[in-house]
Amino acid sequence: MRGVTFALLITFVGCQKYDLEPEFSNIKTYVYRYEGLILNGLPERDLKKSGLKLTCQVEVSRVSQEEHILKVISPQLEEYYGIWPRDRFIKAPKLTQQIGPCFTRWFKFEYRRGHIGNIYAPKDIPILCVNIVKGILTLLPITIKQSQSVYELQEPRIEGTCNTRYIVQEDRENDRATILQTRDLNNCIEKVVKNIGMAYIRPCPTCPVQAKNTRGTVALTQKLKYMEPGALIIYAESQQVYELSPFNEPGGTAVMEARQNLTLIETKSNHEEITEIQLQHHGNLYYQFAEDLPQMALHLIKPKSIETRFAEVLLQLMQQNQLQVHVETPSKFLELIELSRMATLENLESLWKQFGIRQEHRCWLLSTVAAAGTTNTFMFLKQRIQNEDLGVMGSAVNLVLAFHLTKPDRLTLRAAADLLASHGVQKSLLLHKLGHLAYGSMTNKYCSTSSSCPAEILQPLHELVIVAANKSHEQDLLVALKALGNAGQPASIKYVKRFLPGFSPDANTFSFRTHVNAILALRKIARKDAAKVQETVFQIFLDRSLQPTLRMLACVVFFETKPALPLVIAMANFLQRETSIQVASFSYSHMKVLSGGRIPQLDNLATACSIAMKLLGPRFNQRSFRYSRVIHINGYHSDFRAGAIGRVYLVNDAEFPSSIIAKMRGYYATSAMDIAEVGFRLQALTDLLRRQDMPFAQYSTFKKLKEFGKLLQGWKELPMEKPLLLGYIKLYSHEIAFGSVDKELLQQLMKFLTKAEEIEMVPKQMVTLFQKGFSGKLIHPLWAGELRHILPTSVGLPLEFGLYSTSILHATVKVKGHISPPLTGSFRPEQLLETNLVQLSTDINTSVYMDVVATMGINTPYFQNGLEFHAKFIASMPVKFDAGLNMKEESFKFETIPVQQETQLLAVRTKLYAISRNMDEPDSSKKSPVLPKLVGPGPDVFNQQWKPLQSERNFRDGGIKEGGRICFDAIYIKLLGYQTQLTMKSCSAAIFRKTYLHTFVEERDIRLAVKPEAAGMKIQLEIQGGVDSKATWLGRSEEESDEDQVTNKRKTKEKFGQLEQCGFMRKSKPTGLVAVLSTIRDDEKLTRFRLALRADLHSSKPSIQVVVSDFIGSRRMKLCADVSILDSQRAKGALKWGQNCQDYKIATQVAYGQYGDHPAMQIKLEWAKIPSAVQAAARRLVMFIPDTAYMLGFVQKEQKNPPQEASVVVALTSPQSCDLVLRLPNITVYDTDVMLPFTLPVGQHSEASAMPPHAWSFISHVPPSVLENLKARCLVSKDTVTTFNDVRFNYTMPANGYHILTQDCSSELKFLVMAKSAEEPNKGKTIHIILTNHEIEMYTSNGLVKLRVNGTEIPTENLPFSSRSDVYILIVREKDGLLLKAAEAGIDKLYYDGHILEIKVAFWMNGKTCGICGRNDAEYEQEYKMPSGYVAKDAMSFVQSWTLSEDAYNTAKAQISLD
Fold it and tell me: Which of 309, 326, 643, 1310 could in theory staple to 303 by disulfide, Cβ–Cβ 3.0 to 4.6 A?
């Protein structure tokens, strides 16, 4: 029995598993030595770094089963600022004294089985100290799995709940165990992070981790000793690394390294008594951010008086920026913003009383307060708007800025809703619109981090929708829908659906414009509920009864939701049966551009669209721009993981384009941002091109047309659209503003412009202002941007990645005018044409200063350390000139002094610094370059002495080079008496590592400056017009001495001879001008450039000649150009240059003709001799042609063509396609059926052919011909009909009915054209035309086409016939038929010769016609539309639906006569 017992005991002991779960004894206090440090910098050695180290002792005591107490003893802070690892940490006693007291109190935490629970601290303890304690406690958690030694978990730590990998190593012999933990900070289910200024940047949750530009990891080693009652942590060491790689490259990183060390040094009895203190709960191990907005990482500000300091800085800004932007202005502007964030509402009101009445000070005050974005600043601006202190425009600007830049919370949102309901906002339509749009954006920011949004936040917008819909107030309804679109919350979908056709029974009672905005409002909602939006817009897309524009906009929203492959394939299958060409073309082109996308975030969508394209095939490809499409440009740099997309949606209908949406989106790493978007809706604008005062409804035929419409089954008039131009603008995916220009507004503008007394006042006031002159100065902040990404470190300090930018505009203007002789009191505009001299003196100096700072480091209210990259950009543009215009002599003189001394035009400076700041030692802030200093005295670009040029040649001064680094470089250029110097200093960091980051952060100084060669240097330009003689054309001065006249006569004779050699002087008297560019120095005038232009535009062969001489320092070097039109089919030109224009020549010819059976144009270039440099450039250009031709799908073949000639032939094979042939000396490139973007004319038109040809018809007939092709044409012959949409079908009209060929289907009912076949086959058809007060019949009799108007026959000898009503009607005999023109009524041309009827309607009638000739809307697949709007199954059914029986026609006519 004893043996059995002993064996069991041995077995039990051998199988025992040591308990690794740590635990502290309740009778002991454990004393640890703790060290935590942080270093920031580039990873290379021997570079400047900054950091901080905390050393202390930590006492841990257990007071209950789970509760433990921690106390920090003897904390000591040390700063690091030097070359790593050479220099040492330096003690910071003042900083220790500032922070140390917060560690003298006890902290309580829950700890059970290796897990940290709740943490408590005294109420008055700063958050910074609490987080440092959390950093210490993050070394204690351990999760043990008894049966595993390697495992992974998602565990909470100070950085969040992230993936943690465990490796457990036991040493039973020594009662020891080692636990290795590694945390992947890019793989977290919940991450602690704070973003500021990034509300408009959208993350990509599905993007791979390696695509991120910030990577973090933690390695923790814990050593335990087996003791009673559990394992004891005797040592813990942690190393955390955060890498920032702006360009997403492995070696190009800036690094933050945090280290921790916790070592058990002693244990002692736990005899200390704990007094009861009031503790505050601080959650678990998660890092805790302060409620207040942390200070910018650029400064530490602790003013004694906020108002006093604000006033001091503001006054300094006013004083320092009188002449130009001071170098400290951007930093002071940011300081003002920081002070505004610290200010109370009382502080801001006090500052307003001081500076609100001073215009310049007030501008800076409002700009800084708006940029601050706190609750107090919002309340302050709210009060200003409600008090109407800023005016309408000032209120509009500050309202938008306040709403968009303020960090929203429930208090600010309630205040914002109160502001929208205030009287000042309600009475202004502008403020009402901008305010609600901005409120939607504020709501979006507030609700961006949660899946749902509180109902009370959305209530103001939902109530506006309901009230506007119930009152049928369209303007408020549009504002509400756009605001809901900005808010982008799924809770608003049910409100939006009320206005979507097919989702609400009363949706059709709202306007088309409302439908459009309801669809577009779903775009941002899809970011939170993509599935529901996809279902909604896909249903709209499938509904063929809806207008194509709505379906195409639904397609836009659908693809913005990034649909999965099954949905994309479902759309492709549906498109195969699509009858609307506009919808099919748009959807196909959208899929096509998406399939070729290069943005990784859109890879899945691109793949789905690529598969869909294979299903669809080329059926919808190569449509002309008459049809809707998507234009897409995208680029992506895989090394930088950055890209951008530019996309234009062209939504066409009968008027094209009817809607245009253009947007730009940027991508970086795993984020995307909609940068800007503009949209326009062009509605019935072509109606503005016709007369608007014609009373069609009052004509006698109007009722008749109404009655005839009733005879057609299901016929309805098309709704009459008002001419309207709509537009909106979005920034960062939020609609900022929208507006419209309607017919009434245009009429009011025209009425104003036609008032004689008001028109005369405008130029008079302008002339008075011109003579009086004006001056002014502007100093204004343009932009203050702030992007901040804050992460916790393992030591409990916040690591901030920040980007700050400021822009300042400075401008001074002085303008003064003089008119001689002075104008009389009774001013008339034509007096200006009789003045001898009009002079203008202008002195304008504009400069822009931009400062960008990127930071990486620790940012706390007490200290800051890390890296700062500074980029400063200064651009200055001085403009000073005197201009004089002599109207009588047709002369113009312009003199300018660009600069009077050395002037800096452009300066760029970049440098990377290591910084260290301490709140208690603000004057001892440390800031020095990260890169080491150069060996040797590298020249300072900004203090370089000017090096005058010794010759006219440009040259480059090579600089100092050290170890492959160019440290100084300069380029000098001399032009027109001024020296331009570009100096560059570049100390490269690429010697340490060749990466984009090291290249980007290198120290650079670039300056572009200009300096006159001598004081008083001027540039003068003289232009003499109206030249009609040789001497005047050549520029002879009348004020010369006898000797000068003799000399100049000889020179004039020489120039005359030279020009005759160029073939430019002829016996006719053409007009021309001479321009002379000169420099003036010490009253000595030196001609730099002379241009003579001669135009002979009224001869049988119009021509233009240009001679350029006196350039590049040579009087014999000239450039001559000649262009002439030989006849209506040919033009030629020549370019000659060299000595007397005789060295080189390039000739060109352009001709119209035939290529095969098609009209064509040929352009030919010929050259006899050209410079070698031009030949080399041409050869390099030709090398790209084969590859380009291959990519475009052209055919190419080697062919020996003339060696000094190139030609291109374009032959129009149809209005939408051409053949192209390009011949070069050794290659021929060609292709057939190349699609054209627009419809072009093919062949001559009857009007053009009837006119006598002249030379200018080479150009003048092209635009009318293109315009002519915008007019649709319908042809009706004996048995064939060709519709406006060019659909042809066979049909023979019976003699027992009236066929409605075409009519105006709008509510205006401007015209109707019918045809009735005669019973005798040889008598043809009778054409009935009803328009205005006229009923016109064209019929055949005895082989002639005759005319009857209102029942009265018009003899041939009485033609042409013209009406005297409001609408001009002209009927003439042309060839064997009659031609009717009534353009104002929409019939551009109607020609009938007894056999063929041709009808052309005006292009503003597109989509407004109906009948057998069709709708004229380019929807040829829906051409057989019946009066009901449904599409007939075949041509016969279609024609019958538009046919009136004779009985019905006569009955209706009799009823109309009876009425």
Answer: 309
